[in-house]
């Protein structure tokens, strides 16, 4: 069952990164600008972010298996349509449809795995999920480059159709059946919360994407969605705190738990450092060593490989030892690897950045899997969907912010190597903050604490 869920989750992650390497190809194919083609990726990302809050409610209303199959069908329809797109407008629309499917699948991966694992195996299962999270962003550009080198661009999307069809058939056979429709809990949809939370986070992601495109944060293209996102999320916070009749999509009392807040903070900052690394490394290999897209992607692969090796091992160990020690060791290794990158120049033999990429992946894997495991270990079952949504929305926001900051650092630097060093000083700073937050994680595995904290918060509010 776990393998089938991970297969479906990998589809969305691969497609989110694969299309990024085809921007120039698509611009030539449709005779349009790079900024216009960029919306094929931006539209996908925004649709994912906007759909996640709906998934939080729908998984309890319709059941995990039903929603998973619906998400796969939507994603497959978007993939097939994108592969048959006749102009750039239709491609943007169909990529957005793909994003809706991915916005259902991606948080469902975490929800279904966490519910299947239970608190005592949370680290082990989140470690397996970490393999997908580590390899997906690396394999996407490699797969995209390989397809573009030998096949028409349409196959970047069409190849998802047979793989998704296999994932659909397997899911229908192995996922546990949902209760009959009449026995599903009648959870009322927080319509106002959905109208505020989804668009609010989407506006923030759009602001970060526009900042990356304009290479500046102080520009109206970034400031307008940033202000809109801040207003919408403030409105949601007020609504969630005052809601009485309909439960809010995300109960803000989750953040009353020190362990939960520390976990999502560490994952958010770690994601910032990770995306900064994955964005900067291909630029370094292309600009400093003159490699093409495919070669740069292959040289970047050790970062994902390090994470894929470390996360299952660290996750399994954290179920017995707790998160703090493993996460501390991993953050130290990642910080030292980031510092090593600040000493690499244009004439440095490629062996050294490859080794540094592998060890930074190992380090990030060692603090990410235990942190994810501790988050789900302390969440009561009723809060798993909400916790997953918070984690994934912050991950989307962190990815967009990481790309925007890296773009700004690189474009304002005096030369490519100075920009490369600046990116890794930023990554090291994020990892240092992660180190400071790790002591706030729960200790050795114990009885879920968030439920008790929420109950205490409810009695005193």
From TrEMBL:
UniProt key word Transmembrane: yes
Residue intervals passing through the bilayer: 43-60, 67-86, 92-113, 125-149, 155-175, 187-208, 220-243, 264-285, 291-314, 326-345, 351-369, 390-410, 422-441
Location in or out of the cell: Cell membrane
PROSITE patterns: MFS
Record's keyword annotation contains Transmembrane: yes
Membrane-topology descriptor: Multi-pass membrane protein
Ranges for domain Major facilitator superfamily (MFS) profile: 1-446
Highest rank taxon of the organism: Bacteria
One MF annotation (Gene Ontology) recorded for this entry: transmembrane transporter activity
Gene Ontology CC terms, in alphabetical order: plasma membrane
Residues of the signal peptide: 1-19
InterPro entries tied to this protein: EmrB-like (IPR004638), MFS (IPR011701), MFS_dom (IPR020846), MFS_trans_sf (IPR036259)
Keyword vocabulary terms for this entry: Cell membrane, Membrane, Signal, Transmembrane, Transmembrane helix, Transport
NCBIfam families membership: efflux_EmrB (TIGR00711)
Similarity field: Belongs to the major facilitator superfamily. EmrB family.
The protein, known as: Drug resistance transporter, EmrB/QacA subfamily
Organism: Micromonospora eburnea
